Amino acid sequence: MGDPAYDGGTLLKSLAPSLLGAADLPGAARHALALFAEAAGLDHDRLRRWAQLHAVQAAFWARRHGFRRARGGPHLETLTRLADHLAESLTA
Question: How far apart are CA 69 and CA 74, in angstroms?
Fold first, then answer.
């Protein structure tokens, strides 16, 4: 059985379309993670670190292979920037 906090990254992936339009991306991501951590009874910092790992992996994967939704073009650049920004903003 894996670490339940791992699902923080899964949560942010599922919220990616709405996060793209967020005026305050770091704030929106942190708010979603805080709500999830509280509802699931998980350590918030552990959840955030797992989400950060997912974002770093997504940015790396995008540069290597693209995303299922975007193999190239402006959508790929947008999603890659989102993953980069999430990875950076979840560091503190």
Answer: 11
